[in-house]
């Protein structure tokens, strides 16, 4: 039977020591104080945090309407859609960034807010170097939108490309040439190169070159050429047509007939073709010689060849012209409107809105 002394020792071993009890109390008090401090800090920062969230949401909501209101004065400076779009988006971005900055400041992240605002400019600089070509085309599109050296449906020549302007976006200018092909030229290339606008002035000068023999009266031939040109309905009387001597050839006196047409109504190439035909026919009727350069021609023939075989080799007689062929040959209308219609019916090669 165990003694009472041994029972007291066993009972003392089961009870916690005063040191461990004090440690547990200290740990619980520490966590309790931390939780209380966290709740107190949360209670203090919660109103400002909610205010920051409200300001961030408010800046996002008012960015669009406020930017449209602030760009109203730009309407008096330019009506460029691209300029309005860029300025409006820039103002909207600044308003949203200002809301982010206020939210971070109210949340107690002042240093992070400053880092974000300064990093925005740094990121923009890095992206500018990385996408230099894209930025260059975009800036060129802004300048083209403001200066407007041409407009949609104008006939222009740029970078040795001739065509009708179908579309101008923030990246490229799309032309439709007279073969019906779509040509996309980067806006930077368009802005840096010489732009020839053929429809800015509808009056266009064309020319026809012809040579007559030295045995003809030069002044009479010039007068006849002017009369033929002035008889054409497509040739404008103002400015008047001119016939100037170009040079003296080996067998001909070469002169150039200059005339003006309305390029919106008539094709200069078609009118020149018709004038050339009329000049040759009328000069032939008036016995005005148009000799070729002197050449030595040797004709080889077979003595055994009979007359019947020669007749068989004669070219067939040309059939009488039909009404449709006559209309086609006499057609001097401009091809510009036809190409514009084809451009309207063709597939859009690039997404995006026109900027001019």
Question: How would you describe this protein?
Answer:
The protein is of the alpha+beta class. The chain has helices spanning 4-14, 18-70, 81-106, 110-130, 132-147, 187-192, 218-230, 268-285, 307-312, 323-329, 336-345; strands at residues 155-158, 161-168, 172-176, 182-186, 195-197, 203-213, 242-248, 252-262. The strands form two sheets. The protein has a five-stranded antiparallel β-sheet. Strands 6-8-7 form a three-stranded antiparallel β-sheet. Strand 1 and strand 2 (161-168) form a beta hairpin. The chain is rod-shaped, with a radius of gyration of 44 Å.
Cα(first) to Cα(last) distance is 112 Å
Largest sheet: 5 strands, antiparallel
In round numbers, the mean pLDDT is 75
Helical percentage: 40-55%
Regions with little confidence, pLDDT below 50 for 5+ residues: 6-12, 307-311
Gyration radius, rounded? 44 Å
Strand content: 15-25%
By DSSP, the count of extended strands is 8
Shape: rod-shaped
Number of helices: 11
Largest sheet, spatial ordering of strands: 4-3-2-1-5
In sequence order, what are the helices and strands, one letter per element? HHHHHEEEEHEEHEEHHHH
Q: What structural class do the secondary elements suggest?
A: alpha+beta
């Amino acid at each position: 039977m165990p003694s009472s002394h041994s029972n007291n020792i066993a009972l003392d071993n089961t009870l916690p020591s005063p040191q461990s009890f004090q440690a547990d109390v200290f740990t619980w008090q520490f966590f309790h104080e931390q939780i209380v401090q966290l709740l107190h800090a949360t209670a203090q920062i919660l109103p400002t945090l909610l205010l920051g969230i409200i300001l961030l949401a408010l800046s996002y909501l008012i960015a669009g309407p406020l930017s449209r209101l602030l760009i109203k004065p730009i309407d008096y400076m330019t009506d460029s859609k691209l300029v309005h779009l860029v300025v409006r988006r820039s103002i909207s971005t600044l308003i949203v960034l200002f809301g982010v900055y206020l939210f971070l400041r109210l949340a107690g992240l002042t240093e992070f807010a400053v880092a974000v605002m300064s990093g925005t400019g740094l990121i923009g600089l890095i992206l500018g170097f990385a996408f230099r070509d894209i930025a260059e085309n975009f800036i060129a599109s802004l300048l083209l939108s403001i200066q407007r050296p041409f407009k949609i449906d104008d006939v222009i020549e740029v970078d040795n490309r001739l065509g009708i302007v179908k579309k101008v976006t923030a990246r490229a200018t799309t032309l439709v040439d007279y073969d019906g092909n779509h040509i996309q030229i980067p806006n930077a290339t368009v802005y840096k190169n010489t732009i020839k606008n053929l429809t800015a002035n509808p009056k266009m000068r064309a020319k026809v070159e012809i040579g007559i023999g030295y045995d003809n009266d030069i002044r009479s031939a010039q007068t006849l050429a002017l009369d033929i040109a002035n008889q054409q309905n497509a040739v404008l009387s103002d400015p008047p047509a001119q016939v100037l001597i170009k040079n003296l050839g080996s067998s001909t006196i070469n002169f150039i007939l200059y005339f003006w047409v309305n390029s919106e109504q008539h094709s200069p190439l078609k009118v020149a073709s018709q004038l050339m035909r009329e000049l040759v026919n009328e000069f032939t009727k008036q016995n005005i010689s148009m000799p070729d350069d002197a050449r030595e021609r040797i004709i080889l023939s077979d003595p055994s060849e009979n007359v019947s075989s020669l007749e068989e080799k004669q070219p067939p007689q040309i059939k009488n012209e039909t009404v449709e062929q006559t209309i086609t040959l006499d057609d001097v209308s401009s091809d510009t409107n036809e190409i514009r219609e084809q451009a309207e019916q063709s597939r859009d090669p690039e997404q995006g809105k026109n900027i001019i």
